[in-house]
Design brief:
The complex is a heterotrimer.
Chain A (H helix, E strand, L loop, with lengths): L11 H28 L17 H11 L9 H32 L2 H16 L2 H14 L7 H24 L3 H9 L4 H30 L2 H6 L7 H9 L5 H24 L8
Helix pairs in contact in A: 1-11, 2-11, 3-6, 3-8, 3-10, 4-6, 6-8, 7-8, 8-11
Chain B lengths: L3 E12 L2 E12 L3 E5 L6 H9 L6 E6 L2 E2 L11 E3 L11 H11 L4 H14 L15 H14 L4 E5 L7 H18 L2 E6 L2 H7 L2 E6 L2 E6 L1 H6 L4 H6 L3 E7 L5 E4 L2 E4 L9 E7 L3 E5 L8 E8 L3 E8 L2 E8 L11 E6 L4 E5 L9
Parallel strand pairs in B: 3-8, 3-9, 6-7, 7-8
Antiparallel strand pairs in B: 1-2, 1-4, 4-5, 9-10, 11-14, 12-13, 14-20, 15-19, 16-17, 16-19, 17-18
Chain C lengths: L7 H29 L13 H5 L3 H34 L3 H16 L2 H12 L4 H8 L13 H25 L3 H9 L4 H29 L3 H6 L7 H9 L5 H35 L1
Helix pairs in contact in C: 1-12, 3-7, 3-9, 4-7, 7-9, 8-9, 9-12, 11-12
Classes of the chains: A mainly alpha, B alpha+beta, C mainly alpha.
Chain lengths: 280, 356, 285
């Protein structure tokens, strides 16, 4: 008999218990997303399950939301979406650009520096999000800073740094010093060796980091909830303000768009870092 | 000494409190193949990396054709290097790997192509230019790494244990090939290895390093026949280090035989005698008296037979050729005798007990 | 043997841009600390523990207790589900199913929390999937209130923090050689016995690490109690927010935040210390 953590044959109660608990785990993880997706195709105004009739009317309504500007609402969905995308883009580019040299420095310098810096850049990960939101709000308000879009982008950058750095670092780990020295011995100056050899080999990790930053920033709710203003607000905040009182099927259709984009991006990350370490 | 290519002058290197190299002086002849040999941690790789420019010596200097290159950064030295991990660029094809050094030297695409082709022919891999590195076998990678280093027409060819990852058979072939290539290009070569057979096979000059010092620098034959000290004798070949004493008449007693030693050993001093396993012969003994020993281990390795003989409190390794018909079993009593012409005698240092 | 490849000065230069990027975060951390020690509620003024003293109310005490309780229960549930999920995930052969499972577990952590809250509302709300099915089957007459109370918040916490446990445990599970299990089996241990005597001890550092992260994450939850608790489940995150938004008690919020930070950091540090202690104790044996 083959033995394993999950026996392929036999195993009795052990195998049953594992599979039972895993199934519950999967259901808790995925049921909400599945229900949202199904209900977004419901023809009825009312959220009864299962839908008696299917239609695309809520999707059409989302399209209308984006095309026919409703002048009465203070913050339009188009503005929010554009802000979300712009913030995510800035966060993605800046966090990656600063993390590539940092990852290089950490992988190539002595151990003390590396450990200290890694700890510093993991802090945002364990820092409570609410506190991050409040802290940034405190600074922005009490110093009366006029930051525009950076009001949201700066906290987001802090938030994604640990993820981007981790991806860049794990990419660096596979690149030996010898390979850089090989380029140098063939006549490349040290910066040239980094550009010709290290950066191309880091590419997958860099891309994974970019996408991670994009996903996190685009979906971020908690910190943004404290930082948004009438002028600068993101899509999750728009969705929140629209559904505070009641659920609106059009928002579900919009949610499905977001789900599809997220799934696509996660698959991309998973492919990029396949076989090399974990997502965290 | 007009033909000295690289002159290493009083080079020392310490890493914090650890001294890796201590006052190394070495002259490397133009076109010669030099092997740096020593046990791990002896500083041989550090010395190679200092030559390549990847480590800065703490003291001393390097002269290439009489010019001080100590301050020249590694990418401007123009030395081809083959690394222990080979360090082929995995994101480039074989041809791109070999052409990389040429590209940096602003040669035309046509020149690059021709040189790549020429080198691939030299290493006998003419049809793999467009393959990726990951598609190559171990031996092929080896050759590509060598071709890449030779493509830049290096002033010095440096190799850091390049063959250690290969299996025995392939390694044997590569050693022969490497030696041929080196002679063909006539390039001054420095190779680091901990494998004494490899070093004996490749080197014009063998540099034995230990404890951060050059213990001996000579031809392989000299190092083997006339080791400079007990460290060298112990490291090269299967040597026995036996403690003995020079008597008042300047005679040395070893395994019950006595013979005259050179006058530079004071009568009455303890010495250690290095005697190689193949320079001892055995004959049967009747009783366990005096100098007789007992066989405690016996094996037949095909090319030769080997015994361990317990004499007093020491075990002596003895080898005979396969054509020798003598058979000794564990428990047999034997007399040993050593060829007086093939003994090396050093002052006693106290490390002899640890030897075989 | 090898010196550092990159000299210290150059390494710091390379790290400088990232350091600038994280500087606002460090500033924010410092600001929170400073504000919590302010004598005034709205501005930084003087140095006092007044804000902390003002927190000594039964209301805040209940909130701390509720936060710790929910975070603890959620952590236990998450760990019970995460270990089997990690086993299944590592034993799947088909890369399609492995990817599908990975994504369905990971998605709740990164997907816009609103979308997930919608899902729970549709599932468990008064007229949601569960209630209408049960009603249709005649099992209940009045809808069960599963949402806008502690049950709903707990479910949300479990869902969003599950990936934080599953993926580190997957890493730890991968590091276990199947030979250990085969050895246990060859010595006569059954599945449960092997699980208890071999698997869990080998996974322990990973399990403790995962559990502490899950706990810290849940203790500082904000969006989930906001969206699924209907403001009735006053976890610390919400209490802190209320101090700011309607009350403008900045120093109070900062002080409460400091307590939250200290609590979560304490759990993280204590658990890593615990892991180190047990592993070094074993090595010296």
């Amino acid at each position: 008999m083959r033995v394993g953590l999950l026996p392929t044959e036999g195993g009795g109660t052990y195998r049953f218990a594992i599979l039972f608990l895993a199934t519950i785990g999967i259901l808790i993880s995925s049921l909400p997303v599945i229900v949202v997706t199904i209900m977004s195709f419901s023809a009825s105004e009312y959220s009864s399950f299962p839908p008696t009739e299917f239609s695309f009317r809520w999707y059409l309504e989302v399209v209308q939301l984006f095309t026919n500007e409703d002048p009465s609402s203070a913050q339009s969905v188009v503005d929010s979406t554009l802000t979300s995308l712009l913030v995510a883009f800035l966060v993605m580019v800046i966090s990656t650009l600063v993390c590539i040299p940092l990852a290089y420095a950490l992988a190539r310098s002595n151990r003390n520096l590396r450990e200290g810096m890694e700890l510093l850049f993991t802090l945002p990960l364990v820092f409570p999000l609410v506190m991050l939101g409040i802290a940034f709000l405190l600074i922005a308000e009490s110093l009366q800073l006029e930051l525009g879009i950076w009001r949201i982008a700066i906290p987001h950058i802090a938030l994604v740094l640990p993820f981007v750095l981790r991806n860049c670092l794990s990419a660096m780990n596979g690149i030996s010093v010898e390979i850089e020295e090989a380029a140098i011995s063939l006549g490349a100056s040290p910066p040239r060796a980094i550009w010709d050899v290290v950066v191309p080999l880091m590419k997958a990790g860099i891309l994974a980091g970019l996408i991670f930053a994009l996903i996190i920033s685009f979906n971020e709710f908690t910190v943004t909830f404290f930082m948004y203003t009438i002028d600068v607000s993101t899509l999750p905040i728009w969705m929140y303000s629209r559904t505070v009182s009641s659920l609106d099927p059009a928002t579900l259709a919009l949610s499905v768009f977001i789900i599809v984009v997220d799934v696509f991006l996660v698959v991309l990350v998973d492919k990029l870092i396949a076989g090399r370490g974990n997502l965290f | 000494m007009t033909n000295t290519h690289l002159n290493i002058e009083a080079v020392s290197k310490s890493f914090g409190p650890v001294t890796a190299l201590n006052q190394i002086d070495l002259k490397i002849e133009r076109g010669s193949f030099v092997c740096l040999l020593g046990p791990s941690g002896c500083g041989k790789t550090t010395l190679l990396r200092i030559i390549a420019g990847f480590e800065k010596p703490t003291a001393g200097r390097l002269l290439l054709d009489g010019t001080d290159i100590s301050e020249v950064p590694p990418h401007k030295r123009g030395f081809g290097m083959v690394f222990q991990s080979l360090a082929l660029f995995p994101h480039m094809s074989v041809a791109e790997n070999i052409a990389y050094g040429l590209k940096l030297r602003k040669t035309t695409a046509k020149e690059q192509r021709e040189r790549v082709e020429e080198l691939l022919n030299v290493v006998e891999l003419p049809h793999i230019a467009d393959r990726t590195v990951s598609a190559l076998s171990g031996g092929q990678r080896q050759r590509v790494a060598i071709a890449r280093a030779l493509a830049i027409k290096p002033k010095l060819f440096l190799l850091d244990e390049p063959l250690s990852a290969l299996d025995a058979k392939l390694r044997d072939n590569m050693q022969i090939e490497l030696r041929r290539l080196q002679q063909k290009f006539g390039v001054t070569t420095v190779l680091v290895t901990h494998d004494q057979t490899e070093a004996m096979m490749l080197a014009d000059e063998l540099v034995v390093l230990d404890h951060g010092k050059v213990q001996q620098a000579a031809t392989p034959t000299q190092v083997y026949r006339q080791p400079a000290n007990s460290l060298v004798a112990d490291f090269i070949g299967a040597a026995n280090l036996v403690k003995a004493e020079v008597d008042q008449n300047g005679q040395l007693a070893l395994f019950g035989n006595t013979f005259k030693v050179a006058a530079d050993h004071e009568p009455g001093t303890a010495v250690s005698v290095a005697v190689r396993a193949e320079n001892i012969s055995l004959r049967p003994a009747q009783a366990n008296g005096g100098s007789a020993g007992r066989v405690v281990f016996a094996r037949d390795l095909g090319a030769f037979k080997e015994w361990l003989v317990s004499v007093k409190d020491q075990e002596i390794r003895v080898r005979s050729s396969a054509s020798d018909a003598s058979e000794y079993q564990v428990g047999d009593l034997v007399h040993l005798s050593a060829d007086p012409a093939r003994l090396s005698i050093f002052p006693f240092t106290g490390s002899e007990d640890a030897a075989n | 043997m090898s010196t550092e490849f990159l000299p210290r000065k150059q390494a710091l230069l390379f790290a400088a841009p990232a350091f600038i990027a994280i500087l606002p975060f460090l500033g924010a951390c410092f600001y929170i600390l400073r504000f919590s020690l302010s004598g005034e509620q709205g501005t930084i003024e003087g140095l006092s523990f007044q804000a902390y003293r003002d927190l000594m109310t039964p209301f805040f005490g209940r909130s701390v207790w509720l936060t710790l309780k929910l975070a603890f229960v959620a952590t236990v549930i998450v760990m019970v589900l995460a270990v089997p999920l990690a086993f299944v995930l590592t034993s799947l052969r088909s890369s399609f199913f492995r990817r599908l499972l990975t994504i369905s577990i990971l998605l709740p952590l990164i997907l816009n929390l609103l979308v997930q809250a919608y899902g729970w509302i549709l599932l468990l709300g008064p007229s949601g999937v569960l209630n209408s099915s049960l009603k249709a089957l005649g099992i209940i007459e009045r809808p069960l209130f599963l949402l806008f109370n502690e049950t709903g918040v707990l479910l949300g916490l479990v869902q969003t923090s599950l990936p934080l446990a599953v993926f580190p445990i997957v890493g730890a599970v991968r590091a276990i050689s199947p030979e250990y299990l085969e050895a246990a089996s060859s010595l006569g241990a059954g599945h449960w016995r092997t699980f208890k005597d071999v698997t869990v001890p080998l996974l322990r550092p990973g399990l403790v690490g995962a559990a502490s992260i899950v706990f810290a994450f849940n203790a500082s939850a904000f969006a989930i109690p906001l969206l699924l608790g209907g403001r009735r489940v006053q976890m610390m995150g919400l209490v802190i927010r209320d101090m700011i938004s309607p009350l403008f008690n900045w120093s109070g919020a900062a002080a409460a935040g400091m307590i939250l930070i200290v609590l979560t950091l304490f759990v993280l540090v204590a658990s890593s210390w615990l892991v180190r202690l047990t592993t070094t104790a074993k090595e010296t044996h």
